[in-house]
Amino acid sequence: MEAMLPDDVLVEVLRRLAPHSVAACRWVCKAWRDTIDARLRPLSVRGIFINFTAHSFSEFFSRPSTGPAICGGLDFLPCEGVRIRDHCDGLVLCHDWEREYVVNPATRRWARLPQRPPPPGHMPGLDQTAYLAFDHAASPHYKVFLIPCLPYGELEDDSLLESEWPPASYVMHVFSSMTKRWEKTTFLREGEAAGVLANMASGSDTYRHQDQYRAVYWRSLLYVHCRHGYVMRMSLSNHKYQVIKLPGADGLSETPTHYLGRSMRGVYCALYYHGLQLWHLNESCSQTEWVFEHFVDFNGAARRLHACPEQTGTPWVIQDVNYRKDPDSYCDKHANRDGPVEEKYDWNSEEDNILDTEHVVEDDFHTSSYYEFLGFHPYKEVVFLSSFVERGLAYNWNSSKFQDLGSLYPNEYHSVSMFCTGIDTYFPYTPCWTNDFPGNESESLLQDKRLLRRESESQVEDDPNFTSTDEYELRKLRGHTKRVKDSRAKVRRRHRTGAR
Predict the structure, then answer these.
(1) Which residues is 222 bridged to in the sheet?
(2) Distance between CA 438 and CA 139 in Å, rounded?
(3) What pLDDT score does 349 carry?
(4) pLDDT tens-digit profile of 343-371?
(5) Residue 374 DSSP symbol
(6) For residue 109, what are the CA distances in angstroms to 88, 105, 441?
(7) Can you tell me the distance from the alpha carbon of 181 to that of 171, in angstroms, rounded to the nearest whole number?
(8) How far apart are CA 368 and CA 18, in angstroms?
(9) Which of 41, 55, 272, 373 counts the most CB atoms within 10 A of its CB?
């Protein structure tokens, strides 16, 4: 069958299938998998998960699409709401007040992670930050890395201040969806350390929370942005790592803000300093160096947006997750609790509202400090930004053009934000329609029911008004449940015996 279908014909046939069916066809043979990954793999961003400072749950800035709707609030999870911690190739790592989940928002499959183990005992007082590693083209399984990181403030043990960091032997816990458990893993350092702990206990970048430091998974390598100006490149194949210094900070009067991300040619870094510098990590010819790509002048875009602030094309939409899930926190007590309905549009970045920054008349309109970085487009040389935490922008650094995506300001956000109107973290989202996600939804829900039953029984038995009659009724109920289970088991055994 493979020889009878040329690639062009196969692509035209598969293009007419639903995304879930296309994902299933990847497993027919290697040739089909390569063709689908090369020519039919979705290369679009369906939205951006945004963690606003004053919100409990993540918002979803949704791109108009003709495909299946994406529920940015992840309403199918057995919890009130979640906050996104990481995203990798269509999967998101998120948490509620007590638990952590790995979720595929496109297929609505999810898995609850077991409780985190404590940090390794070789150094007391360490924090841990979780990062996700997944590539659906290579394997249906994912891993979650708990990277030990330095705590805020002073260390508990002053005798460690002269120790190198990161250590030569870096011990961490890794969760694998294949084994379904946390396991200790040791990564050995190649090359020099970033410094000593005495020089890292304080610094100009310690004000940023560790969750604001992103990681990139690229070709079986995990690049982790760490505080104090370096990236840790971890090889998952040989369990070794290297320290790579971040670009562009030398010679500046103050410490810039760096943002790590993945784009068309691999790992990129955005440096925010009186504008936005874009750098690419070149790793060809066994050399590793940061190459300057582009400088984004925010002043020109600010003048154009100030003169024409409204978006004229098909806008992206904020799904107002917090407004739906927690209306009591807002002035409007009658908020709509129904799930979001995604508009169905075809969106063309070349034809929509493009703001050309060429030939802009110079003036004194200076607002570059009011831009927030929202990540790299993973398949195009495009970065996402927000203007005044109100409007979403896309900037193509090949054409030097801005595009106004629409309003990302959440509904009634001013009533809960007070003075905390910023954005903490962001995650451009690319859907993954693979059905073979190793989820554990049924097992997790069953565990919840058992736990709830045990808690309710414990509360009843601890009740001071619990009488002997109540105890008799409770035992009778337990016996009835057991008899029902035994009866069902007998019926199943009879059916199996009759079938023989």
Answers:
(1) 217, 234
(2) 11
(3) 39
(4) 444 334 343 343 444 433 333 334 455 78
(5) E
(6) 15, 7, 7
(7) 16
(8) 43
(9) 55
Q: What are the structure tokens assigned to 236, written together? A: 């998952």
The owner of tokens 């629409």 is 406
Own/partner pairs, 20-28, CB within 8 angstroms, 24+ separation:
20/107, 20/433, 20/435, 22/433, 23/433, 23/434, 23/435, 23/436, 24/435, 26/434, 27/436
- Are 381 and 101 spatial neighbours (Cβ–Cβ below 8 Å)? no
CB 116 within 8 A of CB 100: yes
pTM: 0.79
- The neighbouring-strand residues paired with 282 are 289
What integer is the mean pLDDT of 140-155? 85
How buried is residue 411: exposed, middle or buried, by Cβ count under 10 Å (0-12/13-18/19+)?
middle
Would you state the structure tokens that stand for residue 14, as one six-digit string? Answer: 């598969």
Cα angle vertex 372, ends 367, 375, to 5°?
Answer: 140
Handedness of CA 23, 25, 27, 31 (dihedral sign): negative
φ, ψ for residue 429, nearest 5 deg:
-110, 125
Of the candidates 295, 294, 224, 288, the residue with the CA atom closest to the CA atom of residue 262:
224
Q: How confident is the model at residue 251 (pLDDT cuts 50, 70, 90)?
A: low
CB distance 299 to 288 below 8 Å: no
What number of H helices and E strands is found in the chain? 8, 27
Contact 187, 112 (CB under 8 A): no
Q: 178-200: per-residue pLDDT in tens?
A: 999 999 999 999 999 998 887 77
Q: What CA–CA distance (Å, rounded) separates 500 from 492?
A: 13
Q: Which residues pair with 131 in a beta bridge?
A: 145
**Look-up: residue for tokens 């496109």?**
106
Q: Can you tell me the distance from the alpha carbon of 429 to that of 51, in angstroms, rounded to the nearest whole number?
A: 13
The rounded distance, in Å, linking the Cα atoms of 279 and 262 is 11
Burial 142-154 (b: 16+ CB within 10 A, else e): bbbbbbbbbeeee
220 pLDDT exceeds 60?
yes
